[in-house]
Amino acid sequence: MSDATTAASGETSSGPKYNLETLSEHKTRESCWMLLHDKVYDVTAFLDEHPGGDEVMLEECGRDATEAFEDVGHSDEARDMLPKMFLGDFDGPKSAKAAKRAAANGGSTSAASSGFPIWILPVSVLAAFIAWRVLYA
Ligand code: HEM
């Protein structure tokens, strides 16, 4: 219980870092965590108090709920409730899809991750050079 009060002061500090794996382990009524704007919140105790009902909340447990939260257009009052539930900052990819993409690229975010084959550039230059030789040399 006292955890919630001490955590409230942790909003701006660099608390523990959570990742997608840890987050996704808390997706039930017994333990519901949510990612909102790169911060992880334990909303378990708030499920029954949520003015919008617990069902909409339960759908977002264990994942990035930022879009759902913002789509509703929550008031400042609602945002002021967040520090009480703050657990820590989030680190790493925010969805299974993003995680897969990162793993496929060895975690790199270079040009290779955009799907643009990096060898295209030197091959084009070579092809242009050969064409020039054939036509003009
Ligand atoms: C910890 C996170 C959340 C807090 C503290 C919170 C708080 C609140 C509060 C105080 C309200 C009353 C209206 C307002 O003041 O804006 C509300 C309404 C509502 N919330 Fe949340 N909420 C949270 C997360 C979510 C999520 C993830 C959803 C998912 C869709 C959601 C959906 C709704 C809906 C549908 C309403 C009803 C809006 C209406 O009847 O006009 N909330 N929430």
Automatic annotation (TrEMBL):
It is a single-pass membrane protein. Pfam families: Cyt-b5. PANTHER family: CYTOCHROME B5. Keywords: Electron transport, Endoplasmic reticulum, Heme, Iron, Membrane, Metal-binding, Microsome, Transmembrane, Transmembrane helix, Transport. Gene3D superfamilies: Cytochrome b5-like heme/steroid binding domain. Residues 1-16 have a biased composition (Polar residues). It comes from Kwoniella shandongensis. Belongs to the cytochrome b5 family. Residues 1-22 are annotated as: Disordered. GO terms for cellular component: endoplasmic reticulum membrane. InterPro entries: Cyt_B5-like_heme/steroid-bd, Cyt_B5-like_heme/steroid_sf, Cyt_B5_heme-BS, Cytochrome_b5. This is Uncharacterized protein. Its main location: endoplasmic reticulum. The chain crosses the membrane at residues 116-136.
